[in-house]
Amino acid sequence: MNDHQPTDSPEPTVEANQEPPIAEAPAPSSMVDGQEHHVDRQSVVVARIIGLSVTSLIAVVPLVIITIGLALGGIPAAVYFALVGCWLVLTSLVLSFAYIWPAARHKRLHYLVDEGGLRIRRGVFWRTVIWIPISRVQHTDFTQGPVQRRFGLATLTVHTAGTAGASISLAGLEHTIAARLCDHLRPDRATDAD
Amino acid sequence: MQTDVRRLNRWSWPFIAANTVRALLIPAVGAVVASGGVLLTRLDFLSLLFIVPAFVYAFIKQRVYSYQFTQSELVVRDGLLTKNVRHISYERIHNVALVRNPIHRLLGVTTARIETAAGGKPEALLRVLSMDAADELRRYTLGEKRQPAETDSPEARAAVAPLLQVPDGELVRLGLISNRGFIVVAAVLGVFSQTNWWNQDWVKDQDWLSITTGLRAKAPDWAAWLFDSGSLVGRGLLGLALIAIFLILLRLLSIAWYLVRYRGFTLRQDEEDLRAEYGLLTQVSSLIPVHRIQLVTVTSTLLHRWFDRTSIDVETAGASTGDSDLSGQLAASGMSTTRQWLAPIVETERAAGLVHRVLPEVDIESVEWQPIEARATRRIVNRVAIVVAPITIVLAVVLTFSPIPLSGWHALWLPSVALAMAWLITRRWVRQAGYALTERAIYFRSGWLSRRVSVVRFVNMQTVSLHQSPFDHRKRMASVAVDTAGAGGTGHRIRIPFLDVDIAGSILQRLYAETRSTEFRW
Question: Span A31-39+109-193: which CATH code?
Answer without folding.
Answer: 2.30.29.210
